[in-house]
Specification:
- With 654 residues, this protein is of the alpha+beta class.
- It has three domains: 12-44 and 90-202, D-Maltodextrin-Binding Protein, domain 2; 221-308 and 570-646, D-Maltodextrin-Binding Protein, domain 2, CATH 3.40.190; 316-326 and 333-405 and 441-457 and 467-567, Roll (Dipeptide-binding Protein, domain 3).
- It is built from 21 helices and 25 strands.
- A five-stranded mixed sheet has the order 19-18-20-14-21. The protein has a four-stranded mixed sheet with strand order 2-11-10-9, with no helix packed on it. It has a four-stranded antiparallel sheet with strand order 5-6-8-7.
- 53% of the residues are buried.
């Protein structure tokens, strides 16, 4: 997966002949950028969104997010629920710069070299790179990691690295990845995202299994203590080999990071109000508007913080399982979308804090607006017989309801579409004229409180003769059923970056539609979409990438694969300012280092460092847990690749 914000047209390191792709080829470099040049040269001192003089010390206490408990420290498998914070244990070959496009800087590697014809990428490992037991990281470890991830890891790794033919160890510290194709310009950067595990540690073990044995990594933190379902404490590794690298300077300042597990969102917030943890990501609009009136907020110890990132808003919504016949007609899906009354929800329960989603890249330059440009038409015209005709004639927009008339007009349009699709209302029930099937479906949830979003939609659907049912299950059952595509509808979606790439094949590609555990939750199989994804992956310039993304966005939205919901233009946080501090500015990506958030760049207030409790006892509450946030799949499954390597935050809004 790529990341990016702005168009950069210079060629890396001053090469005068502009290549088709901006990545420098044919010689070792310290960083590679997909389009443009790295912002920082080989001898830069630190990233510009950190405080290089941040003091070390203290404890940062955070809550769990989606999971109510954990049963494994192995984050590379679909089995079990991984403990929070495991991304702190592992390092990757390269790391992202959060203030620029898809640029990767050497981390474990000392240099990276891309073949002139893009047929391979070779890494030279830093001689000082070490695992946490002091053993050197070698080329054999890198090859072993790739092999075991693609053979025994979660299925997403196999598709993510599908264009790699083989890995060659060319010396103790030299490793080369040979590609099957020369036409995927992002492959070198994708390989740079590889998390590296120890061959000596994992050889002979079942890599696909769950384990509560803290794993051996090469990252800044190690597991100190834990109690399943209650807490995990990570301590900063005093022998962390990379602590003086420019890509790490000013980061990972807390001596300890503690995760508290709560089973109830209300209990979690009450714990935050009394200092039970230090940083709260607020996903409830009503609470943000009305509940911050407790003493610590009024006396200034707790402060609100809104962070606007340069990345697209999370594309969440009701996702159909197209493997069910009733959802295969686009007119049916459009009718169901017409029944979703966002305006009423925004007025009544969201305090007008949200914006309706109309794009899979909303808030970014990749959001399709207006009618297709001539450049987009060059991509779309050959697919004209395969895509909705509205793509060529209308700008996509969501239906709107007014406070006075409500959804009546939209429901009339929905009824007409359902009739065209072969459904008719018989005694208050929608029935298929050909098969006699009644239009009933079930929505699978892991968070019962989402009924406030679902039930108003169901009430409108009932006026069309459609009966919806809510089934709430626990996390493990939800994961299993989604992995096997055993559902009618879920609340799910994707978090796109500004540099889309081959992850789009995982989201929407035909090859992933029937592969258990894939992120093509809806089972989309569409040759036009497959073709547009190929165009995105092979885009030679930023302009080509933007054009292809616009085209794909139009085809996705006009197919109504998801009832896109809503999102916030800013992420909302509250934090104890007398305990933790932050840099003056955030990178364009928002909070850096996903899965780590404030751990990466914040630090403890000096007078609070001594106050941090170094205890294995739970804090406020009884180890009870966070409610599930809005995207209950990015949520639990996430993108395993992104979690460790791309360091890409999943954002969700409830």
């Amino acid at each position: 997966m790529r990341r990016g914000l702005s168009l950069i047209v210079a060629v890396i390191l001053g090469i005068t002949t502009a290549p088709a792709f901006a990545t420098v080829k044919g010689r070792p470099v310290h960083a590679i950028a997909l389009h443009g040049e790295p912002k920082h040269g080989p001898n830069f001192e630190h990233f510009d969104y950190v405080n290089p003089d941040a003091p070390k010390g203290g404890t940062l206490t955070l809550p769990n997010a989606n999971d109510q408990t954990f049963d494994t420290f192995n984050p590379f498998t679909l089995r079990g629920t991984s403990a929070r914070g495991t991304g702190l244990i592992f390092e990757t070959l390269m790391t992202n710069g959060d203030n620029e496009p898809f640029t990767m800087y050497c981390m474990i590697c000392q240099t990276v070299e891309v073949a002139e014809d893009n047929s391979w990428v070779e890494f030279v490992i830093r001689p000082e790179a070490r695992f946490q037991d002091g053993a050197s990281i070698t080329a054999e470890d890198v090859k072993f990691t790739f092999d075991i991830l693609t053979e025994q890891g979660a299925p997403v790794y196999r598709i993510y690295y599908a264009d790699v033919d083989r890995v060659e160890v060319r010396g103790e510290l030299n490793v080369r990845f040979i590609f099957k194709t020369t036409e995927n310009p992002e492959l070198p950067s994708i390989i740079g995202q590889l998390p590296v595990v120890s061959k000596a540690y994992w050889e002979g073990k079942d890599f696909s299994d769950t384990t509560l044995e803290p794993p051996l990594g090469s990252g800044p933190y190690i597991v100190d203590s834990f109690e399943v379902g209650r807490f995990i404490i990570y301590k900063r590794n005093p022998d962390y080999w990379a602590r003086d690298l420019n890509v790490v300077r000013g980061m990972f300042n807390f001596d300890r990071v503690r995760y508290e597990y709560f089973r109830d969102d209300t209990v979690r917030f009450e714990a935050f109000k009394t200092g039970g943890f230090d940083l709260h990501n607020e996903r409830t609009a009503a609470r943000w508007a009305t509940a911050y009136n407790f003493p610590a907020f009024e006396n200034g110890h707790v402060k609100k913080l809104e962070v606007t990132a340069g990345t697209p808003m999370g594309a969440q919504g009701f996702t159909w399982n197209l493997r069910r016949s009733k959802f295969q007609d686009r007119r049916v899906r459009e009718a169901l979308n017409l029944a979703f009354d966002f305006e009423s929800l925004n007025r009544t329960i969201f305090y007008d804090q949200y914006t309706r989603l109309r794009s899979y890249w909303q808030r970014s330059e990749l959001e399709a607006k207006g009618l297709p440009t001539p450049e987009e038409l060059e991509l779309l015209e050959p697919l004209k017989d395969l895509i909705p005709p509205e793509v060529f004639t209308q700008e996509f927009s969501q239906p709107v309801t007014s406070e006075g008339s409500g959804p009546r007009d939209n429901l009339l349009k929905a009824r007409a579409l359902l009739e065209q699709a072969g459904w008719e209302n018989v005694n208050g029930e929608l029935v298929n004229r050909a098969s006699g099937e009644k239009f009933n479906f079930e929505i699978l949830l892991v968070q019962a409180s989402l009924d406030r979003i679902v039930l108003p939609w169901f009430q409108n659907l009932e006026r069309l003769g459609i009966k919806g049912n809510i089934r709430v299950v626990d996390v493990s059952q939800f994961i299993n059923r989604v992995n096997e595509f055993d559902f009618d509808v879920i609340v799910g979606g994707v978090q796109n970056s500004l540099s889309p790439g081959n992850e789009q094949a995982e989201y929407w590609g035909s090859e992933s539609a029937d592969r258990p555990g894939s992120r093509n939750y809806g089972g989309v199989k569409d040759p036009a979409i497959d073709k547009l994804i190929e165009t995105i992956i092979a885009a030679p310039t930023r302009e080509n990438l933007v054009t292809a993304s616009h085209a794909l966005d139009r085809v996705l939205t006009w197919n109504y694969f998801t009832v896109l919901h809503y999102g916030s233009l800013a992420e909302r946080y509250a934090y104890w300012s007398n305990k933790i501090q932050r840099p003056d500015t955030f990178p364009l990506m928002g909070f850096p280092a996903p899965g780590t958030g404030a751990i990466a760049t914040w630090w403890a207030v000096s007078n609070a460092a001594d106050q941090a409790a170094d205890t294995d006892q739970p804090v406020a509450g009884d180890g009870a847990s966070s409610g599930m946030p809005w995207l209950p799949l990015a949520f639990v499954l996430g993108s395993l690749i992104v979690f460790f390597a791309v360091r890409h935050r999943n954002r969700s809004n409830t």
